[in-house]
Amino acid sequence: MPIIPPKKLRPILLILFLTITHNANALLEDCINESSSQQQDLLKVNLTGIGIVTVWGVANWDYFTQSPKSTSEGWFQNNTNSGGADKIGHVYASYVAAHGLSYLYETWCFNKQDAALYGALSSLAVLGYMEIGDSFSDYGFSKEDFIANSIGSLFGYYSYNYPELENKIDFRWEYGFHPNHNDIITDYENSKYLLALKLNGFEYFRNTFLRHFELHLGYYSRGFDDPLSTKERNLFFGIGLNLTDLFRQHSYKKTATTLRYIQIPGTNVEFDKDKNK
Questions:
Q1: CA distance linking residue 220 with residue 190, whole number of Å
Q2: pLDDT per residue over 174-208, tens digit each?
Q3: Which domain holds residue 71?
Q4: Residue 273 neighbours by CB distance under 10 Å
């Protein structure tokens, strides 16, 4: 599909987060009589997400105005729209959605394993349906976006279901200090994506000073919004402070949870390698 406009991902992420925050507060009740309505609630969430995508897509993205078609956007090449940063953005969005929906389902008394499975499937269903809708518009079905969504949902499932993985690895998005886009979600010129390996997740480091640190591996691109700019495709390795553990130890659990998904700029030291040089 062509360059994703700023409005492309914003409503989906807002819908998911609003659903999570609204229902998580409303549905933390006893689980004694919940099992009979679990499947109905699960169906409602998925149908609501698909319904909203349909209405928004018809109104704003010209869904169902053309015969279905597919397109290849490429991955991380220089001739792509954002040097592949948008693909990692899809992985990240589906990963966060999988975690958020898994948490929601757990508040509805699903056991953790089922909640993780259904959260990942719901994430893939809603974001995957958006790609199907794209096939009936000017965008076209992007196999790269669908694969990225699948990877993010799968990673979301494993990291939510297995505490030993969750304790060791975070997937985060860092947003810079100089926004130049109407929607920060698709402002790839100011975005970085990274995996954080938390040393306190390993028994060997748990009782040492190194437990306060983590290792980062990430990617970001620059210069793809402006044809006159020099394009960069940067891999980076970093060393950062484990802020999630720091805030959790001081009983700021909500902040600690947020920092599993958001990297605060300036809290790590990076060593970059531009693949274009």
A1: 8
A2: 998 766 656 677 788 889 999 999 999 998 998 89
A3: 1-28+36-166
A4: 10
